[in-house]
Amino acid sequence: MTTLSAKENIQAIVKAIKSEEARLRQKHPLLTHQNTLGLIILLLSLSAFIGVGTLYYFAIIPAWLCIILAAIAASISHELEHDLIHKQYFSNQPFMHNFMMLTVWLMRPNTVNPWYRRKMHLHHHKVSGTEQDLEERLVGNGIKNPFLRVLVIVDGLLGLLINAKRFSKEIKGFSFLNVFNAGFPVTTVYFAILYSVIVFHGVNVFMPLEQSSPVWLLDIMAVFEFLMVVLIVPNIIRSSSLNFVTSSMHYYGGVNNMLEQTHVLTSRVFMPFNLFCFNFGHTHTIHHFVPNQPFYLRQMISKKILEVMKHHGVRFNDFASIKQANLYQANNT
């Protein structure tokens, strides 16, 4: 840690990020084709997503492999959505921009729509680390009870229902219906399928529904169970990993500047979770300093920039804060 002021440290980090990006763009002219790169990455991840589902349908790969590969493909679509929220692709071409927004939502149906999430995320950058940060609080940030935290991380709908009353009191302008309706119809269908399968098999433990149910119901459940493997369970893994990582690395309370909004998660403990959220724990802090930057550039510059951030006071693997419901403690070393 240097003896510079917080403002000077922040400026140094921002300068290093922008300088390293400029160097890479000069070295690799291909990076100037940002719209094309974003679209290619989207189409490749979508093709992989559909491809592994097809392989599972024809029994070429087992369910567990389909789930893992689909979760990784979906994690790429999250990074693309993050970029789209900051208008990194086709910002002057509404049709292509909204096509990409819709596609990444369909690949990640357990989230609110990306147009609504844009409002939450841009607000997150303004109020990160405070009780007004709805985006992070929705995924468990600031919750001390470990059981409640796990529940919120794994099931966003239950988390919203449980915390709605508290959010209404603490977060300005919060509306349960606004957040809930922001998932219609894609997220609504997702949870309808998920809970239908859970209820069906839960009841089947005590009552033989598979023997007594009409054929049409069994046919519907067969479709739902296929969707569980190729779409729903992969996104449970993806979103749970992302929610665990992001809610662990963002601070809640005690935050006074950008240096104190996040810490970097490089610990091996988080390696399996970073796998399903495209190395989010390593790179997201870079995004807080320079938001308008494609995700693949953050990956490319991260090795050098993490050293710069460490030198200028950004913390790494601050597990003490997680134990204290993400509180930033100034005397923590």
From TrEMBL:
One Pfam match: FA_desaturase
Ranges annotated as spanning the membrane: 30-50, 56-77, 147-164, 176-203, 215-237
Gene Ontology terms describing biological process: lipid metabolic process
Keyword rRNA processing carried by entry: no
InterPro entries cross-referenced by the UniProt entry: FA_desaturase_dom (IPR005804)
Domain Fatty acid desaturase: 61-318
UniProt entry keywords in alphabetical sequence: Membrane, Transmembrane, Transmembrane helix
Top-level taxon of the source organism: Bacteria
Protein name (database record): Fatty acid desaturase domain-containing protein
Natural source organism: Pseudoalteromonas porphyrae
